[in-house]
Amino acid sequence: MAPFNQGIGVGWANAAPAFPADKPIWDASGLDSLAQITAEVVECRACPRLVAWREQVAQDRRASFRNQEYWGRPIPGFGDPEARMVVVGLAPAAHGGNRTGRIFTGDRSGDWLFRALWRAGFANQPTSTHVGDGLLLAGAYVAAAVRCAPPANKPTPEERRRCLPYLERELKALDTASLIVALGRFAHDAVADLFALRPRPLFGHGRETELCGGRRLIASFHPSQQNTFTKRLTEDAFDAIFTRARLLLKSDEGVEGP
Ligand code: SF4
């Protein structure tokens, strides 16, 4: 099983190779791979403010996790290397991904996301608590627009611009993926920018946009506590996104939908 499917701590251990500083951000030879991108992401220190924050949080820790060692580094995407759907979030949570080393893992948003992916048949279990918990994705890959936990969940425009090439490269490496599900306006706008959509398409739960290369973007409210506590996002509405994704992927295969 490829290491990407369980997160960086499986197979990668914590010793991803450092890449030479002069390595181009996009490998023009076309040989860019998820392994290469992962190795670069986990070593990245390009944003001084985010590096300081992620490491400070990892040092201070939340009281309930005081006995755990935090990852405290950037988080690459993970999932099925032959994914047909890529789910894009905003950034790792300070005490979620920044602690566990896997995106949407060990926090409430992840609870929502993986329950929904499991119900839709993209995950083998409804929980994502830590690397090595047995979670496997089938047909799906999960990533974020920004790879380091930002203060107040708010990366600056410059940090976003600096980090987006990692998502761009993952999307290029995942050349079987025809569907992108953006969780929240930030991720939606990031994908729109990667595909140079002007004007940016309107954001709204369930809105769909055609992308170049036969790809399609689906917008979803982010499963943040702010959205789920206020019922702006319900489990039914979240499920509807992945039910629709299933239907679109089946119609791509020329198979009748359910
Ligand atoms: S946010 Fe992205 S570009 Fe900035 S340090 Fe983290 S991984 Fe690097």
Compressed to H and E, one letter per element, the order equals: HHEEHHEHEHEEHH
Secondary structure: helix percent: 25-40%
Q: What is the helix tally?
A: 8
Task: Please outline the major beta sheet.
Answer: 6 strands, mixed
Class inferred from helices and paired strands: alpha/beta
- CATH fold-level assignment: Uracil-DNA Glycosylase, subunit E
Overall geometric form? globular
The small-molecule ligands in this entry are: iron/sulfur cluster
Q: In total, how many domains does the architecture comprise?
A: 1
Tell me the name of the CATH class.
Answer: Alpha Beta
Query: Strand content of the residues, in percent?
Result: 5-15%
CATH homologous superfamily title: Uracil-DNA glycosylase-like domain
Task: Please describe what this structure looks like.
With 258 residues, this protein is of the alpha/beta class. The protein has one domain (3-18, 31-252): Uracil-DNA Glycosylase, subunit E, CATH 3.40.470.10. Helices cover 34% and strands 10% of the residues. It contains 8 helices and 6 strands. The chain has helices at residues 34-41, 48-60, 97-100, 108-119, 157-173, 185-194, 225-229, 235-252; strands spanning 78-79, 85-89, 140-144, 179-183, 208-210, 216-220. A 6-stranded mixed β-sheet has the order 1-3-2-4-6-5. A hairpin with a 5-residue loop joins strand 5 (208-210) and strand 6. Helix 4 crosses helix 8. The chain is globular, with a radius of gyration of 17 Å. The protein starts with 33 loop residues before the first helix and ends in a 6-residue tail after the last helix. Residues 9-30 have low confidence and may be disordered. The structure holds iron/sulfur cluster. Iron/sulfur cluster binds next to helix 2 and helix 5.
